[in-house]
């Protein structure tokens, strides 16, 4: 790509997407004579994380293994995401509280309903301590979105998804229920950290997620945002950097009628 071989690069990205689709199918099912004979049990991708102790320190949320769960450098990105889903007086869903950065922004739009789903007990405790569970327009659902959304009958004008430690399969599963919880003229966006330290795999992931959302009936647009160089200082005290790309692609997802 750096040497201008755009066509070749695109060919490789397409090949990457095809491989991923095939591998994902093979991972899900064992097929014999065209019949599915076994479906792999669902595992909780981030159970280890959900059992670990968390620490809030200096604009960071870290787990006891040193993994950065959420960091302050993402604030400008959260602002862009919140601008996409928020208009005054709407019903908004946010999945994953973390540092509460986007939830604080969502509150500024005076939503009629602001639902927050959070699965980690330490984060939930922080939400209780900071008064989130008693705000009049806020409903906090404590648990994994996979569990709590099953019994929650509500639809939203704006939805943001940003969990931690889950696989692409989980995002894929969330997208399958999106048509049931997003209002017809609603807007959805998600934290696009997919393979955020490798440009090629990031490009493959962005194309896959776009194709899958289109297949379900959504329109997807990516806005490219330049990310300032994040120096070593940003990642000090953390186990590893989870983002190193120069451009962040912000997805805007709406129903394609
Ligand atoms: C990256 S943080 C979210 C940061 C947030 N966007 C902000 O602005 O501060 C991810 C959050 O998702 C939560 N989480 C992880 N898996 C979850 C799940 N399956 N359901 C609900 N919350 C989950 C984590 O405990 C963590 O608080």
From TrEMBL:
<keyword id="KW-0949">S-adenosyl-L-methionine</keyword>
<feature type="domain" description="RMT2">
    <location>
        <begin position="40"/>
        <end position="257"/>
    </location>
</feature>
<dbReference type="InterPro" id="IPR026480">
    <property type="entry name" value="RMT2_dom"/>
</dbReference>
<protein>
    <recommendedName>
        <fullName>RMT2 domain-containing protein</fullName>
    </recommendedName>
</protein>
<dbReference type="GO" id="GO:0032259">
    <property type="term" value="P:methylation"/>
</dbReference>
<dbReference type="InterPro" id="IPR029063">
    <property type="entry name" value="SAM-dependent_MTases_sf"/>
</dbReference>
<dbReference type="InterPro" id="IPR051038">
    <property type="entry name" value="RMT2/GAMT_Mtase"/>
</dbReference>
<keyword id="KW-0489">Methyltransferase</keyword>
<dbReference type="GO" id="GO:0019702">
    <property type="term" value="F:protein arginine N5-methyltransferase activity"/>
</dbReference>
<dbReference type="GO" id="GO:0005634">
    <property type="term" value="C:nucleus"/>
</dbReference>
<keyword id="KW-0808">Transferase</keyword>
<dbReference type="GO" id="GO:0005737">
    <property type="term" value="C:cytoplasm"/>
</dbReference>
């Amino acid at each position: 790509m750096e040497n201008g071989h755009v066509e070749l690069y695109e060919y490789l990205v397409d090949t990457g997407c095809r491989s991923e689709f095939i591998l994902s199918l093979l991972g899900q099912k064992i097929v014999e004579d065209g019949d599915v004979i076994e479906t792999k049990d669902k595992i909780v991708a981030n159970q280890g994380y959900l059992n670990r102790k968390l620490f809030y320190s200096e604009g960071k949320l870290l787990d006891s293994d040193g993994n950065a769960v959420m960091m302050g450098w993402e604030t400008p990105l959260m602002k862009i995401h919140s601008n996409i889903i928020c208009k005054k007086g709407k019903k908004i869903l946010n999945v994953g509280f973390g540092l509460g950065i986007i939830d604080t922004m969502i509150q500024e739009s005076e939503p009629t309903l602001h639902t927050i789903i959070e699965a980690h007990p330490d984060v939930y405790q922080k939400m209780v301590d900071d008064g989130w569970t008693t705000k009049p327009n806020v409903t906090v659902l404590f648990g994994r979105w996979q569990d709590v959304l099953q019994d929650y009958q509500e639809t939203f004008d704006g939805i943001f998804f940003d969990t931690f430690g889950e696989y692409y399969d989980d995002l894929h599963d969330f997208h399958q229920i999106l048509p049931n919880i997003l209002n017809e003229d609603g807007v959805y966006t998600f934290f696009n950290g997919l393979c955020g330290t490798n440009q090629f795999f990031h490009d493959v992931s962005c194309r896959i997620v776009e194709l899958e959302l289109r297949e379900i009936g959504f329109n997807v647009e990516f806005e490219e945002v330049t990310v300032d160089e994040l120096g070593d200082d940003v990642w000090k005290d953390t186990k590893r950097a989870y983002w190193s790309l120069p451009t962040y692609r912000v997805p805007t997802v709406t129903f394609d009628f």
